[in-house]
Structures are given as C-alpha cells and as structure tokens.
C-alpha cells in the first residue's frame, strides 16, 4: 500500500452519514432533505454543498461527539495507509453548534490521541476562519488560536466562499496567526480564478495554497508557484464534483507537476464528494499515469510542508522510506 498523507480536509466535512444520523437522533435534529435516496449527502452546487455541510456540522454539539468524529476519520485514513493527517477545524461551526473553542479543540485532541494510539497515524489541527463570514470573524478565529495555544494546533487558514471579499481584507487575521508562530495556508484558485491565487501570494504570508488549481490559467503564475516553492493542496475529486473541471482527465495536476509546482493529494470533504484519501491517490494515478514513485514523492511533499516540528517530520519521512 502506498504511504499517504493528507493536509487538506475539513473535519466536519469528514462526517460519515451514519455518524451524523447517530448524533441527530441523540439531539432530535431533523435531517429531512440532507441525504438522497442512496443515503449520500444531497447537494447540487457550491451553495447547496455549503448548506448541507453546515447542517451536518450542526449535530456535533458536545465534546464527546467531536471526539467521535475525529477518531472515526483518523482511523479511516490510517486504514488506507495514511501516515500523517492535518485537519481544518472551524471555531465558527463549533460555536454555532454550542461548543466553546476550548471544548472543540479538546474534543478533537482526544479523538486524535485515541486514533494515534490505535493506528500510529500522526495528526495536527489547522484552525480556519470562514471567509464569507467576513474579515472580523476570520480575525477572531485567529485570535482564538493565538490566545489559547494547544500543541496539536499548529496552523491557521481560511476556508469558505472564495467569491466573498478580497484577500487583502484578511491580512490582519493572518498577521495575528503568523505572530503566534502558526503555519499558514489559504483557500484560493478553486471557485475563483488565477487572480485569487496571485492575490494570496501578494497579500498573505502563506506557504501553501488550498486548491490553487486555477493557477493553470496563467503560465506566469505557474512559474511563480514553482519558483517560490508554494505547495498546492490539491483535491481532484472535490474539483470535479464541484464542476471546476469536467472530469478527472481534464484536471491539471500532471501539468502542474511537470511545471515544477509542489503538489499534494487530498480529499477535502470525502463523504460529500464520494471519495477518500485512498481513492484520490488511486484514481489520480490511474487517470494521469502517475507511478508509485510519483505518489511517494507527493506524500513526501505533504510531510515536508506539514505544519509540524522537524523531529516529527524526520520520523515520518523515515517511515515513508521503510519497505
């Protein structure tokens, strides 16, 4: 089995429908319309996907539930050969469900601790602000992460609707996180075009870009990404499901690799897009002719660009080269 790493996945977006049903029953929450006839999440565009995501997230109302969610997904990843996992965690979604920031992070930490002891997978948390909630809300997410440091919280980023605002509006939030010593990433270049990736590089001190695939529309930008060694957190299944590309064959990951851009493979919100980290590696390799060596190099890029200490990276890289 190819060793894998995942550095772009939203923790509430990993919620298996069975787990959502479990906690919906516990809290007497209606799920009418959330699932289709096959039992999968029902949505048809980005706006309806966000609405479905928010409804699923709303059932995780206790520290115990968040622990269950974290443990379940980390174990699923480990079963597919994942050595390292970073998840995006949204304090705004936690607050909407009635959870404090501390309870939210403690629940995630407990779930990941159990999964680590059970499987050996290493895990970290990236706190994210939600772009379409506005600059003040994103800055508050950064302040929470900075004011209440936790050893498993090692990064800060921004998710949400890329069509909202300009990235320069969020520079203050990223300055707070940078001052706190957190690794930085931002979603750009998925729904919005190449200019959004350029704006991220121009206005935010990020080492990684979430998605970033629309950079392919601008050859000069692709060269800049390669020259500056900006890592793209690529999620092919998500991109196809949301209509960014017509199918996996049209996805530009191979072109970006050939241009020297560091790329990683990730699942984003796996049950919503009917994928997994194993499927992302397998289907992308099959469609684009990637070798096992190519896939191991992608995993190596994820580990090297991960928001974790050097000793942990060294240990993971050693595991990567084990037969």
Give a quick precis of the structure.
By secondary structure, the protein is α/β, with parallel strands linked by helices. The chain has one domain: Alpha-Beta Barrel (TIM Barrel), CATH 3.20.20.
Shape assignment: globular
The mean pLDDT is 95
Helix content: 40-55%
Largest sheet: 8 strands, parallel
CATH architecture: Alpha-Beta Barrel
Estimate what percentage of residues fall within beta strands: 5-15%
The count of DSSP E runs of length 2 or more, i.e. the number of strands, is 8
Strand order of the largest sheet: 1-2-3-4-5-6-7-8
Q: In DSSP terms, counting alpha (H) and pi (I) runs of 4 or more, how many helices?
A: 14
Radius of gyration: 18 Å
> Could you spell the SSE succession in H and E letters?
EHHHEHHEHEHEHEHEHHEHHH
CATH homology superfamily name = Metal-dependent hydrolases
Q: State the end-to-end distance.
A: 10 Å
Under CATH, the topology is which? Answer: TIM Barrel
């Amino acid at each position: 089995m190819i060793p894998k790493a995942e550095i772009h996945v939203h923790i509430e977006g990993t919620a298996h429908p069975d787990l959502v049903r479990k906690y919906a029953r516990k809290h007497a929450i209606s799920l009418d319309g959330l699932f289709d006839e096959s039992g999968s999440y029902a949505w048809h565009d980005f706006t309806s996907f966000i609405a479905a995501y928010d409804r699923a997230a709303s059932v995780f109302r206790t520290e115990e539930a968040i622990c269950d969610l974290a443990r379940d997904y980390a174990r699923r990843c480990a079963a597919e050969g994942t050595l390292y996992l970073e998840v995006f965690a949204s304090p705004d979604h936690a607050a909407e469900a009635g959870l404090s920031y501390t309870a939210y992070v403690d629940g995630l930490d407990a779930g990941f601790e159990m999964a680590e002891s059970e499987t050996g997978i290493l895990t970290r948390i990236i706190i994210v602000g939600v772009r379409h909630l506005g600059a003040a809300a994103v800055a508050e997410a950064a302040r929470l992460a900075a004011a209440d440091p936790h050893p498993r919280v090692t990064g800060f980023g921004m998710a949400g609707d890329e069509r909202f605002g300009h990235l320069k509006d969020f520079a203050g939030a990223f300055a707070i996180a940078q001052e706190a010593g957190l690794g930085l990433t931002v979603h750009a270049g998925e729904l919005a075009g190449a200019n959004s990736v350029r704006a991220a590089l121009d206005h935010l001190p990020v080492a990684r870009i979430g998605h970033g695939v629309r950079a392919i529309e601008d050859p000069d930008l692709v060269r800049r990404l390669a020259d500056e060694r900006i890592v793209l957190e690529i999620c092919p299944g998500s991109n196809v499901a949301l209509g960014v590309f017509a199918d996996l064959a049209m996805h530009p990951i191979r072109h970006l690799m050939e241009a020297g851009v560091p790329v990683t493979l990730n699942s984003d919100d796996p049950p919503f897009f009917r994928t997994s980290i194993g499927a992302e590696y397998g289907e992308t390799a099959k469609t684009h002719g990637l070798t096992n060596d190519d896939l191991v190099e992608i995993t190596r890029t994820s580990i090297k660009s991960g928001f974790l200490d050097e000793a942990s990276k060294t240990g993971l890289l050693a595991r990567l080269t084990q037969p």
